[in-house]
C-alpha cells in the first residue's frame, strides 16, 4: 500500500514537472513576441496543458489504478507550487526584457 502511494506521488510530481517544463518553454517563446501573440501563446498553451493534466488524471486513476487520494492531492499541490514558480519565472523574464530594452519602450 505504501509503495502504491509513493508511486502515485512521484507520478503526480512527474506530470506536473513536465507541465512546468512545457510552460517555461512556451513562455520563453512567447516573451519574445508582441503582446497579442504573447497572450495567444500563453492562454492557448494553458488550455492545452489543462487538458493534458485532465487526461493524466484519468489515465493515472482509471488505467494505472494509482492511489486516488495521493495522486489527486499531489497534483493539486504540485500545480499550485509549480504555478508560483511559473509566475516568478515570467516576472523575471519580463523584468529582464524591460531592463534590456528600457530605452526603446514608449511610456
Distance between the termini: 59 Å
> What does the oligomeric state look like here?
single chain
**Shape, please?**
elongated
- Can you count the beta strands? 0
How much of the sequence lies in strands comes to under 5%
- Class from helix and strand fractions: mainly alpha
> Mean pLDDT, nearest integer?
88
Taken together, the total number of domains comes to 1
**Number of helical elements:** 3
- The arrangement of helices and strands along the chain is HHH
> Which percent bin holds the helix content?
over 70%
Specify Rg, calculated over alpha carbons. Answer: 17 Å
Give the uncertain stretches in residue-range form. Answer: none
Largest sheet: none
Protein topology:
Elements: H1 2-30, H2 35-63, H3 68-100
Helix pairs in contact: 1-2, 1-3
